[in-house]
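User: Okay, second chain of the day. Same drill as before: sequence in, structure tokens out.
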Amino acid sequence: MPLRTCVGCRERAGKSELLRVVAAGEEAGRRGPDLVPDPRGRLPGRGAYLHPDPRCLDLAERRRAFPRALRLPGPLDTTALRRWVEAGGGEGRTRRGGGT
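Assistant: Same drill. Structure tokens below.
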């Protein structure tokens, strides 16, 4: 199983336990590109990995980890990602061998 590092807590975990996050688009007048969840791991572009947990998201934002991991100038808009994580979007992840 491939291992990845969570950009929030910096713990290594299996790729299937982490949520891939990518930057998507930039609209005029906004903070920057949106960070969007990529639970299937198929969106184009460079990805960063995060436990689907609000605490890890808070740590990643506080450490300004996303711009570094994605090699983009900050700031990045985490609104869509935060909504997904707080809504429990990661509940169906394959932690115990279940499906997505």
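The chain has one domain: 3-86.

User: Thanks, on to the next one.
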